[in-house]
User: What shape does this take?
Amino acid sequence: MTAGPAARALRIAFVLPYGERSDGFFPATFLGQLCAEARAAGHHGALVRVYYAGDGGPRDRAIGDRLRGWLDAGGFELVVLERLFDPAPIAGFVAAAPGRRGVLVVRGDSVEPAPGIALVVGGVRGSASTGRTRSAVTVWQVAQAFAALVQALAAGADPAGVPGVAAIIDGALVGAPLPPEAGPRRGLAPALDHATIADGPAPPIVRHTLFGNAGCPYAADPRALPMYRALAIPADAEVARLGCAFCSMGGDYERRPDADVIAALVAQARHVMTHAPATRELVLDDQHALRYLAALIEAAAAAGVPAVRWLFAARADAFVRERARVEAAIASAAAAGASIEVYLTGFEAFCDAELQRYNKGTTVDDQLDAVAAMRALAAAHPGAFDYAAARGHSLILWNPWTTPADLAATLATVRAHGLDELFAELGRNRLRLYPDLPIYFAAAAAGALTEAWADGERGAGARKGYHRERPWRFLDRRTALAWQLAEALRGRLGTATEASQLAAVAALAEGFVGEAAAIAPTAAAVVACLDRLAARLTGLATRADGPPRGRHRDAEVVRVTGPCNNGCAACPNGARYQPEPARARVDAARATGRPVVLAGREPTVRADVAALVAAARGDDARPVGLVTNGRRCAYAAFTRALVDAGLTAASVKLFAPTAAAADAIARDAGAHDQAVAGVRALVRAGVAVEVRAPVDAGNLDQLGGYADLTAALGASQLRLEVALDAVGLGNLGAAVAAIDALVERCAALDVALEVSPLDAGATLHRWMPVLPSRTR
Assistant: This one.
């Protein structure tokens, strides 16, 4: 892959930028390979990892300034990047002295020209052998072209004439396509040493990428769908015409003999584990690694590669269809003391309309089947198989066509099936548009492209660390409002309650009838009310006066998954999938030495709830609590069994002070009367009982009645909590007034009151009520 000896030694900087304090799944080993080959050819090569803070403001600018300083101090002539979302430090460095160049190397990704970049290696790929789409690009092709480029620069030759190297002329890539590989493939042995630029300590590097076959075998044609059928895509445009409409990889998959791929991957793994022994995960850059995964793990073990976690990609439908191969790989991993994890299943949405727009070739039902298969395998093979530890699956929640109903559909499925475990963030992932993708042409035809991002927006590339992309707008102004609100809510409340936040946003946006000019003031008004509510709850949670405070102890929470005898629309527990067996998690909670609280969806409905309480109590009579709807506690024998097992505390959700309102929220007639009877039974049994009062649009007019109900039931205290989807973003001002009335009533009746902060939503379960109930 290297060209001949250098005419003169160049100083080359290989820059690895990250949009946040995480390496994610960006394959740093490819630039490491180019660096190693440049050094072997006699050049000075240096790698630097650059971790942006992700604020898009002064902290990120400070990181950019430090990168510019590092480049200046190194006296580099050539700056090489695989992606570029912040061009300022590169453009400034290149412009500061003659002879400096910025180069992008592209392994098949979509790319947009950026300031400071003069040359792109691998940006022009040519057609696949079938002629139906762009060709897949191998890392060997790109490395070969890069070596030729470096040789030309060292010799003072014109780099624009190097095959596979494109110049940027009037914003377009101009150059010959990448030539085929010349000669036999060499092994990949990337440089793994690097400098670091970060705001604070850099994250440890425990994951490295290995390269298998290029491309993706999924080859459905988007033009079979009405959305794409009539698009005017120029015949000579280099466009990824097959596969997912938003991806540049589909329709041309490299099919080397499995034995050759395995041998190359084992050699790469040995190199990485030898020179970076802290590595714990090896990521297979191959969209169909399942075909040889079992044999690869066996070969790696035989070659002395230490046991690691092997991460592989798989489509949802392929995972189900090829389950036998997954099981074979699990068996191989278990035998080798290693493990495997499916890390990149492109779910993208849980709304069939959105999946069609993306040309995913799957349905929501297909994807749920895949998740069920993943969970079953993880339960059957703990330690050998996982699917959610890395949380590396993809979801594209926002695109130009997304409607509030589409958003709500995905969220409803996520919450009903506990899918939050799959994704690091639900609401941040937004479509990136590049002019080599079918969906880009669809967006252009729909009038969604813009000259620049709207105020306050940066695009997904800058946020997540990908290439810069073309700016676009939402076609539905209601979704534009939803996006603004989602960003503001996540910024204030974090991601712990993001499903609730997004559900509230979708509901408000669905009813928005204003014009585009009303979006910003509407969002600002909602956020102002949100801030008032958050401040009021925080003040109550930390108050030193007013109604008496409750008494509680800090406990370890064990959340369980299962059915529920209520049907609340705003349930925070559905999205939180917890694997079985719960007993193992109870034992882990006990190991902390703290009391244990059982919470989730709905603990008392489980046949083993008394056994779990007994296990949590243990031989040392550990205090044990429940967060429950309390309905089954109306049965005396059931309550006695729980108390005999060791139950000492319960936080019982009553959805309103009156039966009519509470039953409407729980969506089950008679639920309130049963829950009230359950509270009485628990109090009679000597359990410390807290009434949990979820603020809801349906109980705002009677919120003060919770104080009277708590006193009448003889409960230890009252806990107030607010989930945004339950109260509704349009009711935030009314919620503050209702809470003020409740506080006044609690003070009048001397009812102890505890309050959960807004960023906890309805998920703060760690505070277990104890007797006696009140303390200042």
